[in-house]
Please model this.
Amino acid sequence: MIFSLGRMAIFLLVGLTVVYVSLYFYFRAGAKMRLEEEWVMQGRPGDRGDWVSERLAPHAERIRNWLILFVYVLPLGGLSVYVYLTN
Model:
């Protein structure tokens, strides 16, 4: 019983990690695209890559925090509550 639960937890964590990485790159690419468009619309001088990288760091950290909550904490918490209530 315990081994099957552990095996299920490992597969669940692997699956959630794939979802996390995919969503992280998707949302980060969207934020990067918005920043690049903002740079072009404002007609800023200088290197676009440096400007975008500088402004993308806080966005990436915020994305990471939200994804940890929505991809790992909520599903695992919900599963834990479900298992607790059914047993």
Remarks:
- The mean pLDDT is 91.
- The CA atoms of residues 20 and 26 lie 10 Å apart.
